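Lab meeting, action items carried over

1. Structure of the two-component assembly. Owner: GW. Status: complete.
Input record:
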Amino acid sequence: MSNDVYIVGVDMIKFGRYPDRTVPSLAAEAALMALDDAGLGIKDMQALFCGNLGQASGMVGQRLLNEIGQTGIPVTNVANACATGATAFRDAWMSIKAGVYDVVLAVGVEQMGKGLLGGGSNAPSPEGIIGSGTMPAMFAHIGNEHTRKYGTTFAQFARVSVKNHWHSTMNPKSMYRKETPLQEVMASEMIAYPNTKLMCSVNVDGSAAAVLCSEAKVKQLGLMDRAVKVRASEMSSTPFESRQAAMPDFTAATRLAAKNVYERAGVGPDDINLIELHDCFATAEIVHYENLGICADGDAGKLIDSGETQLGGRIPVNVSGGLLSKGHPLGATGIANIYEVATHLRGRAGERQVEGARLGLTHVVGGGPGMGTACAIHILEKV
Amino acid sequence: MSEAETQEAVPPLVPYLEPNAGKPYIAGSRCEACGHVFVGERQVCAKCTARGKMKPVHIAETGKLYAFTIVERSFPGVQVPFVDVVVDMDDGAHLKGTLLDVEPNPEKIPFDLPVKLVYREAVPINTKGKPYLTYYFVPA
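Predicted assembly:
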């Protein structure tokens, strides 16, 4: 028997705004949905890995078990910027890979306010005086660097939003489900050039969960009919690049994790049938095309123009609607991406199904000014 | 009150800005093992991991614009638009800042624009009117 790890249950709540709910109640909802999907109960789980940022010191995992059953299993609470959910999933995967457990639960959850991220310190604010600490500005620099190197245009960045908003019209779990033509994207409120409001991800509340299982346990429980194999899991932190202190860098960490994940899986970017990548801003999706190797350096503008990354194209990217339209509840995003890819590999994605999908990749990368980055990439395989 | 005393009375907005009795500079560290220049004081080189090789330096006063954005929406109380830039300093350091005296129009801001540092007082949005010493970039 191999030591491969499988997802046997996975689900997410519809992303939206739930100001009257608590973080543990949102987490509990997704956890129960994933357990139901697996046909298992919380009593079957041997450990819980729970990702959340906003209440990182608040023992969200224990409070989640208080809502669905205090079985006494070990809980690991995880916080790792926008890679929080994927880190919880990877920790769950490692615990099975190590042979410690054979069936565990991973949950990601976040409840967010509206508005700009990046403030929130008590120190005198340098905002506006020493540039900007806001996320849209940070990712504007990253897009502007791409423009500097390769001449990428405002319209090319904007096309990412047109594509992902269109994809979301086919996803009932997306926060927004409205098409946004190119003119509308480019004419919407400018936040930090070239990112307009419709090129920024949506702050929403959400949760997602997955049940992971050893191969022996999947067979013992007879769950191979719903299983998706975790072909490879890799993470990276911030490999040194000289501009990082002035300009947060999401490229070096993504390239390192991508190289390792393809090596580990024994496949290349051409073998991948769909990707959910970290489109926190439209500019980010463009640079990650190259970072994940689905086109050559400098060709990302041409790739979005070609339509190859939309549903029906050579390598559909963010068919869920992405963070731009589905929404980006920080701690939940990593597992929600895994839900999306697993759903396609199971052939259950309905109207937005990527036909014949056999291998899919999920990518999240997070961080902030003066903090560094966390990147997690998973390759999932149809059983 | 002399100009130097005025400067002393106004604290720096960020720890790597050294007021230096009215002759401010950006404090940096140069690794004598690999040569990398960091903004701010540090003990170990994040690039080559060398220990005990950091030498305090004053960061260069001039550089070239590497990347920019025009910030149109910020936190309440922050005046917009402003031009947020990443500058490659002439000594190899990289410094973020606000670029003054340019039109906030992407067509009018060239890559590699030569810029220099100027030191001024500014009032952050969350200090109830209390001024701090800061730096800005202006075209050189």
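2. GW to write a short summary for the group page. Key points so far: The first helix of chain A runs from residue 23 to 38. Chain A has one domain: 5-114+202-382.
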